[in-house]
């Protein structure tokens, strides 16, 4: 399952919720009739979207069977998930963030840098955060630096500018 949003809070008294989306395709992902999954009290539940409208840049959703503010409040903080197989295919050279997490990062010379633990920034200035704590290294997620990405092998080959890795490791 892949997280596509978080329920922020109830909106109004009729059971609707405001969602913080984690998708580039909110209109398609949160379309009426779509099914989302949440985990509550150790159980998986399915929610069917009854209606969606954008409100101040965020989806405002109504779910079938969620009819009161109390019903909606019970969803606050829930992760909205879909099966990975339901993800929209991306163009070549684009990657879902969850697919990059955990990938081993090595240099073109074969030096192991570490594993991707986070992605920071936006598409125009994203960085791979590799390693942990004091050994954390931030590598720009740019074609010129990330020269080979093999999601199936969970491996990213980088050709960093001279001193980039050492500078990050020291900082």
Q: What's the story with the biggest beta sheet?
A: 6 strands, antiparallel
CATH topology of the largest domain: Elongation Factor Tu (Ef-tu), domain 3
CATH class wording of the largest domain = Mainly Beta
Q: Can you tell me the residue ranges where pLDDT is under 50 for at least 5 consecutive residues?
A: none
- Can you say what the CATH homologous superfamily of the largest domain is? RimM
SS element count, helices? 4
CATH architecture of the largest domain: Beta Barrel
Relative strand content: 35-45%
Spatial strand sequence of the major β-sheet = 3-4-5-2-1-6
- Overall mean confidence score, pLDDT: 87
Q: How many discrete structural domains?
A: 2
Instruction: Indicate the radius of gyration in whole angstroms.
Output: 20 Å
The helix fraction, in percent, is 10-25%
- Helix/strand order, N-terminal first: EEHEEEHEHEEEEEEH
Helix and strand topology:
Blueprint: E1 2-11, E2 16-21, H1 26-29, E3 35-40, E4 43-55, E5 58-63, H2 69-73, E6 79-82, H3 97-100, E7 104-107, E8 112-120, E9 127-130, E10 137-140, E11 146-150, E12 155-158, H4 164-170
Parallel strand pairs: 7-12
Antiparallel strand pairs: 1-2, 1-6, 2-5, 3-4, 4-5, 7-8, 8-9, 9-10, 11-12
């Amino acid at each position: 399952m892949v997280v596509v949003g978080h329920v922020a809070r109830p909106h109004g008294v009729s059971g609707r919720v405001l969602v913080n989306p984690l998708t580039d395709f909110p209109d398609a992902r949160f379309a009426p009739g779509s099914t989302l999954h949440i985990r509550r009290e150790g159980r998986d539940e399915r929610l069917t979207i009854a209606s969606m409208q954008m409100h101040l840049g965020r989806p405002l959703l109504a779910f079938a069977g969620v009819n009161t503010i109390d019903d909606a409040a019970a969803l606050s903080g829930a992760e909205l998930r879909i099966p990975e197989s339901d993800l929209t295919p991306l163009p070549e050279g684009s990657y879902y963030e969850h697919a990059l997490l955990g990938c081993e990062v090595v240099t073109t010379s074969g030096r192991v840098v570490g594993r991707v633990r986070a992605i920071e920034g936006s598409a125009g200035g994203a960085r791979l955060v590799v390693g942990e704590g004091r050994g954390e290294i931030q590598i720009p997620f740019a074609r010129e630096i990330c020269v080979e990405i093999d999601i199936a092998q969970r491996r990213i080959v980088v050709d960093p500018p001279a001193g980039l890795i050492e500078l990050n490791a020291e900082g």
